[in-house]
Amino acid sequence: MPRPAWMALALLLGTWVACATVPTVPVSPALAPAWPAPPEKARIAYVSTIRGPRDLGLRKPFFQRLRELIVGSLPGALAQPVAVAVADDRMAIADAGCGCVHVFDLAKKTSYLVRNGGGAELLSPVGVALGSRGLWIADSARRAVFLIDPHGKTLQTIPELERPTGLAWDAAGSRLFIAETLAHRVCAFTEQGGRLLCFGARGREPGDFNYPTHLTFAEGPGLLLVTDAMNFRVQAFRASGELAFALGKAGNGSGDFSHPKGVAVDPDGNIYVVDALFDRVQIFDHSGRLLLGLGGAGAGPGQFWLPSGIAFHGNRFFVADTHNGRVQVFRYEP
Questions:
Q1: Going by DSSP bridges, is the β-strand pair 44-50/326-332 parallel, antiparallel, or unpaired?
Q2: Which of 17, 21, 210, 303 could hold 231 in an S-S bridge, CB 3.0 to 4.6 Å?
C-alpha cells in the first residue's frame, strides 16, 4: 500500500554494466528475487546491495587512511543515498545523510568522499552526474552545481540556480542538463558553465513543469527524460527542448504515480520510474504502457523504503534505497 499522499510535497522539498567491472556480493538463490515471478521468464533479477566501499572490494586512499588514523574515522557507509551515477569504472552516490558524495573508482579499487564544492562545505548534495572532466554535484541549498576533479578540486561552479536537483550528462553533446526545481524549468550548460538553453515554465500543459526533479539522458534516441514530480508524469524532450512524449498520471493503481522520483532508460529503451511513496520501480514502454513493477515496502533484497535515484549502466541498474541506507543493484534480462 502506498504511504499517505499528504507526504508528497514534504518529501519533494526534503530529501529527496554490461557492468562487468562492478563486483557483486554472493547472494543465496533463495534471497535473490526476480520479476516477473515464475513460471514467466525473469526480466529483472536482484544482484547485490551496496552499503559502502567494502561491498565493492574497495579501499580508501593512503592519505585518507592516514588522516583517519590521526584525527578519527570518517564515515564510509551510506547514510541516506538519494542519487547515483555510474560511468565506465566510476560510481558516485549523493548522500544527504552525511552531506557528501561517495566516489568509487572501480579500476583503481579506491574510494573517497567529496564534502566541499567551491571552497565551502556541501549542504544538500542531491544530484550527481559523471562527465568527461569530473564529477558534477548539485547542491540545492547552496543553489549551485559544482564540477569536481578526482583530487577534490573545484574546476567549475554554476551559481545562482533556483534549487538545482536533478543532473544529466549528454556525452555526445558535452552538455550538462540541470533541473531548476523552483523555477519549473530545465537548462543545458556547456562544460565551462555557459547557459545554452532553457525550457519549461510552471503549468500543467504538455511541456510545462510543476517541480521537475530527476533527469536522465538516453544517448541512443538522444532524449532527455524529466520527472515532472507534482504533475505526476515523466516527460521526454529532444536535445533542442522540444517535447517528444509524456507518460504517467496521479493515482494509486498500477502504472500510476504517487511521488515519482528517479528515472532511467534500459538498453531497449524501456523507461524505469522510481516512486517513493509506492516503494516501487515501475517500467514502461514509450506509449506509457506498464510492462512490469518491482519492489515493495521493506528492508529485504528487492524491497525499498522511500527510494529516490536510479541509474542504468549496461544491463545493470542501481537504485538509491534512501531510508534503508543502501544502493541496490539489479540486472535487466532482454
A1: antiparallel
A2: 210
How many other CB atoms are there within 10 angstroms of residue 68's CB atom? 13
Inform me whether the pLDDT recorded for 68 exceeds 70: no
Is residue 67 classed exposed, middle or buried when 0-12, 13-18 and 19+ CB atoms within 10 A define those classes?
A: middle
- For residues 163 and 66, the model is more confident at 163
Strands 290-295, 310-313: pairing kind: unpaired
A 10 A CB-CB count for 179 gives 31
Tell me the C-alpha distance between 175 and 93, whole Å: 21
Residue 100: what are its φ and ψ, rounded to 5°? -150, 175
Domains of the chain: 7-332 (2.120.10.30)
Closest among 317, 211, 231, 313 to 274, alpha carbons compared: 317
Tell me how far apart the alpha carbons of residues 207 and 200 are, in angstroms, rounded to a whole number: 6
Place of cell 536522465: 216
Nearest to 113 by CA among 37, 61, 175, 171: 61
Q: pLDDT tens across 241-263, in order?
A: 999 999 999 999 999 999 999 99
How many CA atoms, within 13 angstroms, populate the side-chain half-sphere of residue 27? 22
The answer to whether 294 and 302 have CB atoms below 8 angstroms apart is yes
Number of CB atoms found within 10 A of residue 308's CB: 28
